[in-house]
Design a protein that fits this description.
Blueprint (H helix, E strand, L loop, with lengths): L1 H39 L4 H17 L7 E4 L10 E15 L3 E15 L21
Antiparallel strand pairs: 1-2, 2-3
Helix pairs in contact: 1-2
Length: 136
């Protein structure tokens, strides 16, 4: 009887932790998309980075306020029709066990790519670069 009770408790803890990881991944996917929507709608890289970070914080901050989160801004040159790739990460405790505490940690990551809007106000950061996908 006691062994069966421990199995049920262990399975419940495992299910809760798996659900937490799936929820975190879904939240990060949405936050990375929100970042890119705000990023690609701006005219300059500095405005884009600020708008993207604000969108990321608004998207993730309310859902995971006490967790370490970070976002890597797009390394690509900024300009109309240029790709922008962002990677978002969130640090989660691997297992939370009652009366014991946290056992381990895991980092959840999500990466999204989107093109900077071709018909918006975006100014090409480096005009001497090869033609973009929209120039074709």
């Amino acid at each position: 009887m006691a062994f069966g009770f421990l199995v049920v408790i262990g399975a419940t803890l495992l299910a809760v932790n798996v659900w937490t990881a799936l929820d975190a991944r879904s939240t990060l996917d949405n936050a990375a998309r929100d970042y890119l929507r705000a990023y690609t709608a701006q005219a300059t890289r500095s405005e884009a980075a600020a708008a993207g970070l604000a969108a990321f914080d608004q998207s993730v901050g309310a859902r995971w306020p006490d967790h370490a989160k970070s976002v890597t801004p797009p390394p690509e040159p900024f300009g109309p029709c240029r790709p922008a790739t962002v990677t978002a990460s969130l640090e989660l405790s691997a297992f939370r066990v009652p009366f014991v505490g946290v056992l381990g940690a895991q980092t959840i990551r999500a990466t999204q790519t989107e093109l900077v809007q071709p018909y918006g106000a975006a100014v090409d950061e480096r005009p001497g670069l090869p033609a973009s996908a929209c120039d074709g």
